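Prompt: May I have another protein with tokenized structure?
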Amino acid sequence: MKILITGIAGFIGYHLAEYLATRGDEIIGIDSINDYYDVNLKYGRLVELGFNNLKIEYNKIIISAKHPNLSFIKLNLEDKIKLEHLFAEKKFDYVINLAAQAGVRYSLINPNAYIDSNIVGFINILECCRNYPVKHLTFASSSSVYGLNSKQPFSTKDNVDHPVSLYAASKKSNELMAHTYSYLFGIPTTGLRFFTVYGPWGRPDMAFFIFTKAILENKPINIYNYGNMKRDFTYISDIIQGIVKVNDNPPKENKNWNTMDPDPSSSQAPYKIYNIGNSKPVELMTFVKTIEDKLNKKAIINLLPIQPGDVPSTYADVTDLIETLDYKPEISVNDGIKNFITWYRNYYSI
């Protein structure tokens, strides 16, 4: 397979590229390497992938020394002309779109970044898939789309029209845009609602990373909603396995789709939405305790009110994932945090 991965220098993109390149697929990765968080971590991921010459020029292809079937191009999704040239030249079989402006809280500060990357960038991807047809477009959505929903576990069969952050709204928009292109142009598209991904090489703006760093530095950690939070923490390898299974199985039209009682997760077009989560919500204080245990060090805790854009609980219903693809995430938080702490200590020489 010839696969385009966008956001290859990101947390999930890095792990996915490593997996698929090792499997033997031809991988072309793009990333803008923006400075939303520490670019050294992004470059570190690229080095791990075998891109040793990090004097990266914009729109110039470099080949991995580790995987000859893996190449990288620094490129913005908003750059429609150069993106179209790339599609025309490479003639991709599959596209996995992971590039996005991430972060719920940052969307309160810099909303335009979400429109540029998550809306403009995504329409450019869709247009390229339309004009240079691919077998399947898989794209990252988010559990954040469930917004004000309180019925749990969160099901892809439920309506998600009440987001509580612009980030979530942009991801919901991606799902709607993808469906439109599936319906109009027959492009098989699948959206993946990821639930609180964590693990080695993770994002430093996420709780597991922030907590670990603060505890080791004897600094306090902020626990919102006075600790009354639950998250469906999902380990990175489970996410990668889910993406690969989905990518390898493009959706087909749902022949039983009912226009009088429409299922939001499928369509009469080749379109599908899946949750990818561990389906075992963990109390945030239990999560902190697990980090404390693995570090053998106590946290200094500040209990604070819930923040705008946050939701108190997430919990994935993965019935469709099991029934359609015979797959369910399974790595425990205990094992996942252990692996993350080991990586963290090695990477930062602690």
Observations:
- The domain at 2-195+235-277+316-330 is CATH 3.40.50.720 (Rossmann fold).
- The CA atoms of residues 232 and 281 lie 4 Å apart.
- The first strand starts at residue 2 and ends at 6.
- The chain has a mean pLDDT of 96.
